[in-house]
């Protein structure tokens, strides 16, 4: 099932530390040989300061107790560096921890305060220290320092990277709510045209943001709605289409699972259609089958593949341990909704359907299918009746009244015109005022 | 007379034409066979290549001419004695004619003194006669008439030789002596010193007549021998000046060089002659820098050989020019301390610095400009050569030669770190390659490998045979052979990425267009489309120059063909429809000029247009293009027409197609199809009846399909599409006649698989095109009777119109407040309607999504000025997304905005139902 694995495409857009959870997941699913994964882990760690961890992995990989010399050396170096940075950052840290020190600050002169802090305590050191902490894997410490740094810092570029760092730390600590806040802040920054020199840079940042946000969205309770809100924005959709079409998988899944976002769904189908030649996986193909080609047999096949894909995706296939019974909640939801999609579309174009066929299409047995349909009818989601004698479902033709349609058409017009006039008047006023 | 005839093309003075007339007059009078014969002989002589025999012939001919002239002068003397003006006039005409011949034979710059003497004599005599009134009265009427006309003629004629005559009058003796010299010893004519001051003198004096002659020869003798012979003498004179290699110094070479350059462009300077002189100078140049400088002038002089904008440079000169450029590069690579630049005026004696000089030496020149000019000349020559001749093919074979040069220059510039210039040269290379499919590219590659060896050898021989060996000999450092990658795509990628990195705006845009074209050529539609959309070229193509617009049109045409080949009919149509909307495809693609009945072009316009024509080998086959366009239109329009039988005006996909269809329907008798149009119309008639087989057969019989590389698969695709559309058309047309229809029957009728049919019909149902639903157990389509009554349909149309009205009000408001949309209006007005349309779609970086949406669904109060732009952009996007099918991304919405909003309304209906 490694064919649909996206880790390779996602990883370049993540922070080193953020790749670990993905590798852990892959290891757990045993999609690749253990050895390969361990090796890539060491490679990842080589550039970070988590030398102890690297040593552990090295030991388990080669089943030895010796550690290569360079790792040992590096450890010493890292520790020394840490010490040095700690020393440099000490004054400001103590300053921040001491409530009395606020007396030094003047209440209304922010400029003075900053200048003072900068001269006396070297805020820069704080940043370096926080960064180093992060590199060492001490995320909570890093998060705290970065939070403080951000409040004090004046350099906008530094501030941006502090934001990124904070978000990464929160993600790694799995504080999803806080991470979400950070994400929103960061999004504002990224969308601000002033903070980037070239559109290309901005787009790249957006892509990073989207990749990082995957962690949050698929763990946060409300994430599935938020992911649509974020990804489906034109600017973000453009970024996806240009440079990271693989993200379509997550957006597609979110759309399928989420029932409330139907209006945008149609547009999204078009996007999938356009991107068919640049990205394809069972989930997008499933949508194409149901909504573009109306190939229900194909959709059914794809549904099975989708299940596999979801189970093997680090974001989608998150497990929930329920006593000693592990489930993948997203999979069940996905399958249920996908079934509904097929059925819905199927019903729209049919007048009479054989229950047996329907059951087969829905991957259910006859009894289940019947119960399922009865439920739908009872919840008035479906305007149909079951003919038990011939074993068929009969749809009620739904043709809206012509007059209703006409009324619908014209309803909006008066409101629009009214608004238009309102705006015109307003415009005239501002013109006159000037 | 041949030479005379040719000179008319050149830029010659009136003098010449008057001479010409004289000649004609005389022709009638003079019937001596001898002159005719000799004339013939002489023409022969100038043509023959046999230089050994020539010398003897020349000498005897020269003597003979002089004798003739002397005889005529004697005749004149006799006539004067008896005061016979009629015969005098004849003699005068005769001597003028003889002068021509003498000049041609001796190739002298100077008019023979004998002639001047005669003129002086004649003038004196004339004055005398005019003064003597009594004698004049006594003359017979014919004599007096001759006298008067003689007076005028002489006056006119003598003006040309005024200086010489005066000189002669002042000092008849010395002139005569020199004349004697000249006659007897041609070679000794030019003493060093005299030469230095002579040319100007003589040129000023002997002026135009001489010039005429030169030009005549030049034009006549693009086949070499003539001017080699003529200038050979000149060469010899310089040769003599630099007779002794040891005496040649930098100074006198420089002096001579300055002199030659100064004469450039002056009246009476033979252009070939100058080239020849400079070529000689390159050989005697003392320092590499000097050689370089002279070479630059030489190349410029070679460009000058062809005056005027319309003609092209003679091919052999072009080739020499390329060789010279290669030598320049050789020098530059051998002496990396020489810097070529056109920004600073270098020191006067900069070139004196010898090869071993350590610092940088600056030489004035611009390699890129030269390369571009050479390319332009190549292009021009291909434009003007008849493409159906062998010559054209021969000329095409020179292409690798230029490619080598461009490649070398580019490499040199890259080494020198001038990437911007390098990208310009790279663009030239791209423009020679982008239109070549892989097969043609391979052929060129092979040709380059073969011919180059032959060429090289030839060049070497030529080099050796040419006089003394040069002082500064440069080994051939620069490769003379192009290195082509296996694949044209890799080559394009290489060049194009360089250009994207360093080029300026125009270069980048052109490279992008070439890139798109090339991708389309290789059937990579999606890549080409993405490039097109990402680059925003469509938005600002109107601001580009005409040539780039043509390139854009070509790219669009190729993109359309590509879309068709890969089976994307709607995309293909939207790419091509704009090209065909104005009926000026030929102009838009610069592939010929179509006559328009209503619009007369000024000659100026025509000339401009002719100058931008594409050479034949770059053409996109117009028949194929038309066929593809019409077939795409047919496939879209036929079901569309069937779907909207009443309210037919509501939705027109292709206006062009509709018009053609109307015309063909109006015909009383329809004959068998002849051209592309007829074929498609016949197919359309069959398709409207749902007869897919006939429709396909008709289209299949078009012979343009042989131009397609993967003909089989394209036709296969086409057949499938036709079946599909036939099915749709059938359903649209005959729904009212059926209550139910079985799937089996449909599959059999249209020869489609069950799955396909099911998919197509389902799609129609979902899109609310077909009011029906499946009866699954029996595999039948059940049709619902939901046809609107006429009144209802009209009511719907009314509401649609109303919402359009509201829509346009909003837009009017927008343009008042923000002016975001007037761009599209302006675009529509433009005559040169290349690809326009608001297809920015995907990459258009709108300000904010929300704002955009607001803009579409009505304003929300708090907008104001700052919002307006976002609204405009957002609007176009929302519209595109909404307008159904593929249009969200490419083309489609290029029609009027009105159209788009129309579609949007109907979509709204669909959503709600």
From TrEMBL, chain A:
<protein>
    <submittedName>
        <fullName>Eukaryotic translation initiation factor 3 subunit E</fullName>
    </submittedName>
</protein>
<keyword id="KW-0648">Protein biosynthesis</keyword>
<keyword id="KW-0396">Initiation factor</keyword>
Automatic annotation (TrEMBL), chain B:
<feature type="compositionally biased region" description="Basic and acidic residues">
    <location>
        <begin position="159"/>
        <end position="172"/>
    </location>
</feature>
<dbReference type="GO" id="GO:0033290">
    <property type="term" value="C:eukaryotic 48S preinitiation complex"/>
</dbReference>
<comment type="function">
    <text>Component of the eukaryotic translation initiation factor 3 (eIF-3) complex, which is involved in protein synthesis of a specialized repertoire of mRNAs and, together with other initiation factors, stimulates binding of mRNA and methionyl-tRNAi to the 40S ribosome. The eIF-3 complex specifically targets and initiates translation of a subset of mRNAs involved in cell proliferation.</text>
</comment>
<comment type="subunit">
    <text>Component of the eukaryotic translation initiation factor 3 (eIF-3) complex.</text>
</comment>
<dbReference type="GO" id="GO:0003743">
    <property type="term" value="F:translation initiation factor activity"/>
</dbReference>
<dbReference type="Pfam" id="PF01399">
    <property type="entry name" value="PCI"/>
</dbReference>
<dbReference type="Pfam" id="PF05470">
    <property type="entry name" value="eIF-3c_N"/>
</dbReference>
<dbReference type="InterPro" id="IPR008905">
    <property type="entry name" value="EIF3C_N_dom"/>
</dbReference>
<dbReference type="GO" id="GO:0005852">
    <property type="term" value="C:eukaryotic translation initiation factor 3 complex"/>
</dbReference>
<feature type="region of interest" description="Disordered">
    <location>
        <begin position="880"/>
        <end position="913"/>
    </location>
</feature>
<dbReference type="Pfam" id="PF26569">
    <property type="entry name" value="EIF3CL_C"/>
</dbReference>
<keyword id="KW-0648">Protein biosynthesis</keyword>
<comment type="similarity">
    <text>Belongs to the eIF-3 subunit C family.</text>
</comment>
<dbReference type="InterPro" id="IPR027516">
    <property type="entry name" value="EIF3C"/>
</dbReference>
<dbReference type="GO" id="GO:0001732">
    <property type="term" value="P:formation of cytoplasmic translation initiation complex"/>
</dbReference>
<feature type="region of interest" description="Disordered">
    <location>
        <begin position="1"/>
        <end position="64"/>
    </location>
</feature>
<keyword id="KW-0963">Cytoplasm</keyword>
<keyword id="KW-0396">Initiation factor</keyword>
<dbReference type="GO" id="GO:0003723">
    <property type="term" value="F:RNA binding"/>
</dbReference>
<feature type="region of interest" description="Disordered">
    <location>
        <begin position="136"/>
        <end position="240"/>
    </location>
</feature>
<feature type="compositionally biased region" description="Basic and acidic residues">
    <location>
        <begin position="52"/>
        <end position="64"/>
    </location>
</feature>
<feature type="compositionally biased region" description="Polar residues">
    <location>
        <begin position="29"/>
        <end position="46"/>
    </location>
</feature>
């Amino acid at each position: 099932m490694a064919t649909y694995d996206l880790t390779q495409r996602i990883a370049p857009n993540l922070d080193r530390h953020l790749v670990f959870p993905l590798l852990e997941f892959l290891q757990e699913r045993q999609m690749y040989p253990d050895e390969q994964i361990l090796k890539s882990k060491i490679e990842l760690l080589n550039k970070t300061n988590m030398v102890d961890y690297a040593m552990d992995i090295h030991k388990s990989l080669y089943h030895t107790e010796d550690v290569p010399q360079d790792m040992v050396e590096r450890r010493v170096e890292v520790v020394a560096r840490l010490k040095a940075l700690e020393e440099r950052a000490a004054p400001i840290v103590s300053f921040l921890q001491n409530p009395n020190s606020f007396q030094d600050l003047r209440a209304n002169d922010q400029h003075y305060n900053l200048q003072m802090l900068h001269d006396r305590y070297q805020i820069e050191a704080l940043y370096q220290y926080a960064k180093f902490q992060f590199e060492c894997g001490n995320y909570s410490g890093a998060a705290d320092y970065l939070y403080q740094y951000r409040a004090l810092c004046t350099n906008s570029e530094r501030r941006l990277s502090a934001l990124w760092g904070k978000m990464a730390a929160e993600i790694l600590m799995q504080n999803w709510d806080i991470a979400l806040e950070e994400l929103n802040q960061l999004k504002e920054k990224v969308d601000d045209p002033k903070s980037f020199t070239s559109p290309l840079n901005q787009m790249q940042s957006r892509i990073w943001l989207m990749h990082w946000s995957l962690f949050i969205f698929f763990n946060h309770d409300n994430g599935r709605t938020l992911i649509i809100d974020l990804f489906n924005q034109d600017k973000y959709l453009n970024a996806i289409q240009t440079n990271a079409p693989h993200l379509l998988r997550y957006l597609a899944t979110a759309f399928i699972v989420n029932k409330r976002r139907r209006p945008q769904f149609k547009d999204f189908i078009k996007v999938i259609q356009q991107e068919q030649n640049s990205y394809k996986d069972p989930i997008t193909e499933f949508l194409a089958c149901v909504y573009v080609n109306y190939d229900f047999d194909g959709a059914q096949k794809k549904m099975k593949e989708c299940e596999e894909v979801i189970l093997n995706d680090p974001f989608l296939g998150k497990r929930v341990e329920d006593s000693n019974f592990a489930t993948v909640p997203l999979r069940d939801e996905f399958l249920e909704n996908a079934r509904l999609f097929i059925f819905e579309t199927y019903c729209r174009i049919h007048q009479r359907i054989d229950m047996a066929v329907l059951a087969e299409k829905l991957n259910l047995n006859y009894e289940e299918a019947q119960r399922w349909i009865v439920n739908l009818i009872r919840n008035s989601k479906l305007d149909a009746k079951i003919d038990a004698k011939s074993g068929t479902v009969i749809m009620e033709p739904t043709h809206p009244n012509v007059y209703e349609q006409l009324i619908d058409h014209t309803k909006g017009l008066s409101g629009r015109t009214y608004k238009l006039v309102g705006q015109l008047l307003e415009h005239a006023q501002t013109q006159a005022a000037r | 007379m041949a030479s005379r005839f040719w000179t008319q093309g050149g830029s010659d003075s009136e003098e010449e034409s008057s001479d010409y007339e004289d000649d004609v007059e005389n022709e009638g009078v003079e019937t001596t066979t001898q002159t005719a014969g000799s004339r013939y002989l002489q023409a022969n002589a100038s043509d023959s290549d046999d230089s050994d025999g020539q010398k003897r012939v020349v000498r005897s001919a020269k003597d003979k001419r002089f004798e003739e002239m002397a005889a005529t002068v004697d005749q004149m003397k006799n006539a004067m004695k008896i005061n016979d003006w009629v015969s005098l006039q004849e003699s005068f005409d005769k001597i003028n004619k003889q002068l021509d011949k003498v000049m041609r034979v001796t190739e002298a710059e100077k008019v023979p003194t004998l002639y001047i003497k005669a003129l002086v004599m004649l003038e004196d005599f004339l004055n005398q006669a005019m003064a003597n009134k009594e004698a004049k009265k006594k003359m017979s009427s014919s004599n007096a008439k001759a006298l008067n006309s003689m007076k005028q003629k002489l006056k006119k004629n003598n003006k040309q030789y005024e200086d010489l005559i005066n000189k002669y009058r002042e000092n008849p003796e010395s002139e005569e002596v020199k004349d004697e010299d000249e006659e007897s010893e041609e070679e000794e004519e030019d003493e060093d010193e005299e030469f230095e001051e002579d040319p100007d003198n003589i040129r000023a004096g002997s002026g135009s007549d001489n010039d005429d002659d030169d030009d005549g020869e030049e034009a006549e003798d693009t086949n070499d021998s003539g001017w080699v012979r003529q200038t050979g003498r000149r060469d010899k004179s310089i040769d003599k000046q630099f007779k002794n290699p040891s005496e040649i110094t930098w100074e006198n070479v420089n002096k001579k060089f300055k002199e030659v350059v100064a004469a450039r462009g002056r009246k009476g300077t033979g252009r070939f002659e100058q080239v020849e002189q400079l070529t000689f100078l390159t050989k005697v140049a003392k320092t590499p820098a000097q050689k370089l400088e002279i070479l630059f002038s030489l190349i410029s002089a070679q460009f000058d050989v062809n005056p005027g904008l319309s003609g092209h440079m003679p091919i052999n000169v072009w080739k020499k020019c390329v060789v010279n450029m290669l030598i320049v590069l050789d020098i530059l690579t051998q002496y990396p301390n020489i810097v070529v630049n056109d920004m600073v005026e270098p020191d006067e004696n900069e070139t004196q610095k010898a090869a071993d000089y350590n610092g940088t030496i600056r030489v004035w020149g611009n390699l890129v400009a030269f390369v571009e000019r050479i390319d332009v000349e190549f292009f021009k020559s291909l434009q003007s050569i008849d493409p159906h001749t062998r010559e054209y093919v021969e000329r095409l074979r020179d292409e690798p030669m230029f490619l080598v040069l461009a490649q070398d220059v580019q490499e040199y510039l890259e080494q020198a770190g001038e990437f911007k210039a390098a990208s310009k040269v790279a663009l030239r290379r791209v423009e020679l390659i982008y239109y070549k499919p892989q097969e043609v590219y391979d052929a060129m590659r092979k040709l380059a490998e073969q011919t180059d060896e032959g060429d090289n050898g030839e060049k070497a021989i030529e080099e050796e045979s040419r006089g003394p060996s040069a002082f500064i000999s440069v080994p051939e450092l620069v490769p003379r052979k192009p290195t082509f990658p296996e694949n044209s795509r890799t080559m394009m990628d290489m060049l194009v990425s360089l250009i994207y990195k360093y080029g300026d705006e125009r270069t980048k845009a052109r490279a992008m267009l070439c890139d798109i074209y090339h991708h389309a050529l290789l059937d990579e539609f999606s890549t080409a489309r993405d490039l097109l959309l990402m680059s925003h070229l469509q938005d600002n193509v109107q601001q580009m120059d005409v040539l780039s617009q043509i390139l854009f049109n070509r790219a669009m045409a190729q993109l359309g063909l590509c879309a068709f080949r890969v089976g994307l009919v709607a995309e293909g149509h939207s790419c091509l429809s704009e090209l065909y909307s104005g009926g000026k495809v030929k102009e838009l693609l610069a592939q010929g000029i179509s006559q328009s009945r209503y619009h007369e072009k000024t000659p100026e316009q025509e000339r401009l247009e002719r100058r931008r024509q594409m050479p034949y080998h770059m053409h996109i086959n117009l028949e194929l293009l038309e066929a593809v366009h019409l077939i795409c239109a047919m496939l879209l329009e036929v079901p569309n027409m069937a779907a909207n039988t009443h309210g037919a005006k509501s939705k027109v996909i292709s206006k062009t197609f509709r018009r053609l269809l109307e015309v063909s329907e109006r015909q009383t008798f329809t004959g068998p199809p002849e051209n592309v149009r007829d074929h498609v119309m016949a197919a359309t008639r069959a398709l409207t009846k749902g007869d897919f087989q006939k429709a396909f057969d008709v289209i299949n019989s078009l012979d343009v399909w042989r131009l397609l590389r993967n003909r089989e698969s394209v036709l296969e695709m086409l057949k499938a599409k036709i079946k599909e559309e036939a099915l749709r058309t059938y359903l649209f047309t005959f729904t009212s006649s059926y209550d139910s229809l079985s799937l089996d029957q449909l599959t059999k009728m249209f020869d489609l698989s069950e799955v396909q049919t099911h998919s197509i019909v389902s799609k129609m149902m979902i899109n609310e095109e077909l009011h029906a639903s499946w009866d699954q157990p029996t595999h039948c389509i059940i049709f619902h009777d939901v046809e609107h009554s006429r009144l209802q349909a009209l009511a719907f149309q009314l509401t649609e119109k109303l919402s359009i009205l509201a829509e346009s009000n909003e837009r009017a408001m927008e343009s008042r407040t923000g002016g975001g949309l007037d761009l599209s209006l302006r675009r529509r007005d433009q005559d040169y309607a290349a690809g326009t349309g608001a297809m920015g779609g995907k990459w258009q970086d709108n300000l904010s999504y929300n704002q955009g949406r607001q803009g579409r669904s009505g304003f929300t109060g708090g907008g104001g000025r700052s919002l307006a732009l976002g609204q405009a952009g957002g609007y176009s996007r929302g519209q595109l997304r909404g307008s159904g099918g593929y249009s969200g991304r490419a083309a489609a919405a290029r029609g009027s905005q009105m159209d788009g909003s129309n579609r949007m309304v109907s979509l709204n209906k669909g959503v709600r139902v």
